[in-house]
Amino acid sequence: MIQVKGYAAQSATSVLAPFSFQRREVGPTDILIDIEYCGICHSDIHQARNEWGGSLFPMVPGHEIVGKVKQIGNKVRQFKVGDKAGVGCFVDSCRSCPSCKENEEQYCEGHLVTTYNNVEKDGKTPTYGGYSNQIVIDEDYALKISSKLPLETIAPLLCAGITTYSPLRHWNAERGKRVGIVGLGGLGHMGVKLAAAMGAEVTVLSHSPHKEADARRLGAQHFVATQKTAIAEVFANHFDLILDTVSAPHDLNTYLSTVKKDGTMVLLGVPPDSTQLSAFPLILKRRRLAGSLIGGIKETQEMLDFCAEKNIGSDVEVISAQEINTAYERTVKGDVKYRFVIDCKTF
Length: 347
Ligand code: NAP
Ligand code: ZN
Ligand code: ZN
Description:
The structure is a single chain. By secondary structure, the protein is α/β, with parallel strands linked by helices. 23% of the residues lie in helices and 28% in strands. The chain contains eleven helices and 19 strands. Strands 3, 4, 5, 10, 11, 18 and 19 form a seven-stranded mixed sheet that branches. Strands 14-13-12-15-16-17 form a six-stranded parallel sheet, covered by helices on one side. It binds NADP nicotinamide-adenine-dinucleotide phosphate (NAP) and zinc ion (ZN) (2 copies). The site of one zinc ion has 8 residues, from helix 2.
């Protein structure tokens, strides 16, 4: 076994603290990655605090992982020692269901083995995430990372990047389309950059009035302070597509009324509590309300290649392991520009 150092939550109410654990030896199709950076996603916080229920402890969160390959199994074909590699939100899946066969493993109908807060396919070995210094993963579930951009700015692409890229592609964000991004956080700021790079006209809808200059710098043409604007009137029937990235409970009906006939609002954020939905905003303009979960390995690689080509990284604040708990508090308050990334050499 490989001895690894990281940070874990021991329970829903404990802060994260140093934790040593073991990873499996490198199998024939595995690679061992020395983790350099891992982003802090709001999903890490929801799960470490058991806000969605069913959390497994101890929990080593982290699914925005980048580093360098240290060792490879004898059957590995896609990576060599020294290559940069990434790991996103899952490390394995059933590989045989229709979704897996369609390269959409995130919707696996069998067992999607998430990077942490889950068990391996043996049904018992816990998975531990990227708040650690090494990870072992089957090469088919690892991503290739370009050397063009600083590695710390790439880490958040593995979740925040793909989670916004996938619905933007699925619902054809492109020139001539009006895209609204609700919530300018980790996901939201990537959504702005990606939608702008795809040619769409981007509007940020934020409950934080001070984020306007950032929204414009990131590529938005318009900024709406939602607490000061009667958006249902000013933006009635306006957007082709809305990505809702908000992590806390909020009123969906108002945002829905800003979508055009036959347009779509996609829920990406997962607030712990459900909200009331009225039928009227949907039926009056044949609008659609949808959801979207991260993206498959093939599309994640496509997104990473797109970002390398367009020079798109995340805006990050790099922190040491000792600062994780403060970073959690600041993320919950919306005080991050726009993703905390842990320097994993500090574990
Ligand atoms: P984040 O960085 O904390 O950003 C969330 C944003 O939501 C904030 O920046 C803020 O934007 C807005 N917000 C927060 N509290 C609010 C409130 N009380 N009222 C209104 N707006 C509020 O979080 P993140 O990492 O981007 O994740 C966002 C959500 O997506 C989380 O629930 C996470 O679990 C989920 N997620 C889903 C997927 C998926 O596959 N679907 C993947 C990753 C994450 P403004 O200040 O601009 O309003
Ligand atoms: Zn995430
Ligand atoms: Zn499957």
